[in-house]
Specification:
Blueprint: E1 9-11, E2 18-20, H1 50-77, H2 84-107, H3 111-114, H4 121-124, H5 126-146, H6 153-164, H7 166-196, H8 198-211, H9 220-243, H10 245-264
Antiparallel strand pairs: 1-2
Helix pairs in contact: 1-2, 1-7, 2-6, 2-7, 5-9, 5-10, 6-7, 6-10, 7-8, 7-9, 7-10, 8-9, 9-10
């Protein structure tokens, strides 16, 4: 397995500008990047630069993990009681909103190129990824129910939030959350690791995405739900790598939105 330097630079043969070795072309004169080491340059809608990619992942992951705790302390300081669906919803919506703003500010200079293929058939291919995830979840879910599995903690939290405010849940859990996760784990973590090795990137991101949805390692029920998250993590990553962030966002948004709608039934 070959590993590459994620911070590698290349000097343009024409204008002598030093630029990201994984960029598709020289940003100064536009000459196409023809690498001789067998590593294909990244498409313009799948690259931020190594430092910005790392920043997306670190900021996204850190805020996902710890901002909720900080927000809950602030709300309690203003007199909110830390119980009930109203408090949980307020904390989660605030986290998603703040995270969305932070991540957009990080990728702002690259937004035009990142979403250059958003209104194309490549984005619509995310529908097939969504269908594959639904099919897997249906089959796997029916199997684990037979051996006693119940609703996992992640879905239980979604159910509580949705029951309190369905429309806001659809917006934040169904749309804003998935966009934040795609920027964090696909555009950020996967793209950076792909600079090192593509196979490593797929394995690491798929496992990591499953692991962040595992809320209790002592619970058999949580472990039984893990394959669904791992499959979804792989599917979203494949969609992003194959067709761009538009496809992975569509697949992720539809998957989460369906979970919100199902919880209302």
């Amino acid at each position: 397995m070959k590993f590459s330097n994620p911070f590698a630079k290349k000097c343009c043969e024409i204008c002598k500008t030093e630029y990201d070795a994984y960029a598709s072309s020289c940003p100064e004169c536009g000459k196409k990047n023809s690498r001789k080491d067998g590593v294909l340059p990244f498409a313009e809608d799948k690259i931020l630069g190594p430092y910005r990619e790392l920043l997306c992942f670190i900021v996204g992951w850190a805020l996902f993990q710890y901002l909720g705790f900080v927000v809950s302390l602030i709300f309690q300081a203003f007199g909110m009681k830390p119980i009930g669906a109203s408090f949980i919803s307020a904390v989660n919506y605030t986290v998603y909103g703040v995270l969305f703003v932070f991540l957009l500010s990080i990728i702002a200079p690259k937004i035009p190129s990142l979403f250059s293929r958003f209104l194309t058939k490549d984005t619509l291919r995310g529908l097939f990824v969504f269908a594959a995830i639904v099919a897997f979840d249906t089959i796997w879910g029916s199997l684990i129910i037979r051996i006693g599995a119940t609703t996992n903690k992640n879905q239980s939290a979604v159910n509580d939030i949705v029951s309190y405010s369905p429309l806001l849940s659809l917006l934040f859990v169904g749309i804003v959350g998935p966009i934040c996760e795609e920027i964090t784990y696909r555009l950020g973590l996967f793209t950076f690791l792909k600079r090192i090795n593509k196979v490593l990137a797929f394995i690491a991101v798929t496992i990591f995405f499953g692991a962040i949805h595992l809320h209790d390692i002592t619970s058999l029920n949580e472990w039984l739900s893990l394959p669904s998250y791992i499959f979804a993590g792989f599917a979203f990553t494949y969609a992003y790598d194959k067709w761009g962030i538009g496809a992975s966002i569509i697949a992720h948004v539809l998957t989460n939105s369906l979970a919100v709608l199902v919880s209302l039934l």
